[in-house]
């Protein structure tokens, strides 16, 4: 398995429009995330990365939304996503729209999001599917230097393993297809061939208890107490 942490060789785009069909990708993600945005609640929403900042989250009930990045616009807090300047368990939701794709240390990024999220906080992640038509173009050496093919594309199963280690419960995982010649997107392909969708979406929640019960601990919890030595029963006189 390839290491998740590598030296950063490509700069993340400051806007969706900087990559080919970037606006199509953004609109497709907004349509996919809109039902989930309506379910978010709390006080603070972190949109980490420039691409996350441009995602329309008006459907979200969280009024205080903060854009965090090292540069670009729109930006409200200038900070390294690998070192978020927020207290532990102070944020209700985090949006990572293609943030892992241009991160030198995805593990550290997820740990930082986990650190600042409150118990039962929401984590939304999007990225490119390496098994899609977009992912196949990375095999061409000339294309690897261009956006978005210079980004990192992680398999869905690998990302789910990372979230499981951090004790996140995945509520939704899906792939959607975007066709460059149709602004409506590849609805037919997304329905019948979801594995080939170029965009991946994961919605998860941070849990504070193990999602699966440990049978050893469960049996110990049910262990009966032995009778104390020398203890006698007391009877009341009628």
Automatic annotation (TrEMBL):
Q: One matching Pfam family, short form?
A: Methyltransf_11
Database matches in CDD domains = AdoMet_MTases
The scientific name of the source species is Pluralibacter gergoviae
The Methyltransferase type domain is annotated at 72-125
Q: What is this protein called?
A: Class I SAM-dependent methyltransferase
Q: Which UniProt keywords apply?
A: Methyltransferase, Transferase
What does the entry give for GO biological process?
methylation
Check the record and name the SUPFAM superfamilies matching this protein.
Answer: S-adenosyl-L-methionine-dependent methyltransferases
Q: Which GO terms describe its molecular function?
A: S-adenosylmethionine-dependent methyltransferase activity
Cross-referenced InterPro entries, in alphabetical order? Answer: Methyltransf_11, SAM-dependent_MTases_sf
- Entry annotated with the keyword rRNA-binding: no
